[in-house]
Amino acid sequence: MTVTDSSILVIDNLSNKEITYDLSGNFISEKQVLNDIWSMDIFSINNTLYYWNNYSNSNKGKYLLFSRAFTDYTYKTHLPFDKDYERMGLNGSVYSIYNDNQEALIIYSGNEDIIYKLNREDNAIAEWKIEYKDPRAIYSINEINKLYEDNSGNAIIGLNSINATNNYLFLNIKTVKSGYNCLYNTKTKAIRYSEKPYSSGDILDDMQIRVKKIIDNKIIDYLDAADMLLIYKYVLANKDFKNKDFESRVKEVVKTMKEDDNPILFIYTLKE
């Protein structure tokens, strides 16, 4: 799904449709589009609409990304792949829109993991090649069990997700055993690895973060009320918080919370 200045566009894979609503949720139109291309997600930059593929073939060929102008169903193709990519366990956001919604970063997974910048002129340009601190895992898609037999726990499966600001890349890296996170400063080139979720000060020693969205230097996360109550009961209630102000705010929210309340929104500010 993506939201433009005037509409909401939704991809319905079951019916091969692209459905358009106005910003009040009223139906506008629908069109069969997935007979020509395949898309697992959709996003927009300026007046261009992008369709993200998951290494599936289509009538337009084997491409990870398709694009078109809002007013035209002529598709442009990006990021070709030669064969069906053998991967497992990778999910999450494989693109991240940043720079005031004018550009996007795309994970291009394969034998090498490259991050492409999708610029305002609708061109995909190789921006960064990921250098891992551990070797890549070796496995066959037809013999998944050998993944655990033939590789160490730290062997890299690939990039799991990406989020970006103008100054930082937030990468989740999937390993055979579990995974870890990487915070990359695009200005200083400094890299910080952690087995914990992304951290920005001592609050993150008290509360795990799942990055849902990055806006400027703020990380946005949310939890359903029921999940928050469970986490508090089994993890946070007896925890010795390092950040006492954060502790009091959490306890104040949880004290009156019910399972069917609205989700809890967390906004964390990154420190330089």
Overview of the structural elements:
- The structure is a single chain.
- With 272 residues, the protein is mostly beta strands.
- The chain has helices at 146-150, 203-206, 225-236, 244-255, and strands spanning 2-3, 7-12, 17-22, 27-32, 41-45, 48-52, 63-69, 76-80, 95-98, 103-108, 114-118, 124-129, 156-164, 168-175, 179-185, 191-194, 213-215, 218-223, 264-269.
- Helices cover 12% and strands 39% of the residues.
- The chain contains four helices and 19 strands.
- A hairpin with a 3-residue loop joins strand 14 (168-175) and strand 15 (179-185).
- It has a four-stranded antiparallel beta sheet with strand order 1-2-3-4, with no helix packed on it. It has a four-stranded antiparallel beta sheet with strand order 5-6-7-8, with no helix packed on it. A four-stranded antiparallel beta sheet has the order 9-10-11-12, with no helix packed on it.
- Mean pLDDT is 78; it is low at 85-89 and 198-203.
- The longest helix has 12 residues, at 225-236.
